[in-house]
Write a structure and sequence with these properties.
Distance between the termini: 18 Å
Helix content: 25-40%
Bound molecules: adenosine-5'-diphosphate, magnesium ion
Structural class: alpha+beta
Largest sheet: 4 strands, antiparallel
Strand order of the largest sheet: 2-3-1-4
Shape: globular
Strand content: 15-25%
Length: about 140
Amino acid sequence: MAIERTFSILKPDATRRNLTGKINAIFEENGLKIIGQRRIWMSQAQAKAFYAVHAARPFYNDLVEFMVSGPVVVQVLEGENAVAKHRDLMGATNPANAAEGTVRKLYAESIEANSVHGSDSAENAANEIAYFFAGCDLVG
Ligand code: ADP
Ligand code: MG
């Protein structure tokens, strides 16, 4: 199976509750390697552009406000089938629907404050990684 890269964000609800280590332990224990990582406080402009695909959705403005409400950890994960594996480990968007043992089942506060972001395709992963990281910042 192919080695892939995916883009991951530990959202403000996760940094606020000191959960970054617990969440990343789940990713690492399941074969995903953190090859790039930075703690940042996103600007409104960055959050709006990052979530531009959702601009027409009713939750867009609230989502942007939430994403700039505190620091986040942006990171790149590498491993076999990384995009799908990361999504599986995250669990469903709404924690009420998330499977046992997933990050969102364990830690999400709500459908909005759901602790993690993960790319939903290899193509989006490449775009999202390039938005936050230079190639020379990624060290496997
Ligand atoms: P996912 O993060 O699982 O890929 P989406 O891409 O559909 O989910 O949505 C992006 C983010 O927007 C979600 O992770 C969540 O923070 C927020 N969101 C999604 N749906 C809703 C909703 N119905 N109400 C409030 N926030 C939402
Ligand atoms: Mg999504």
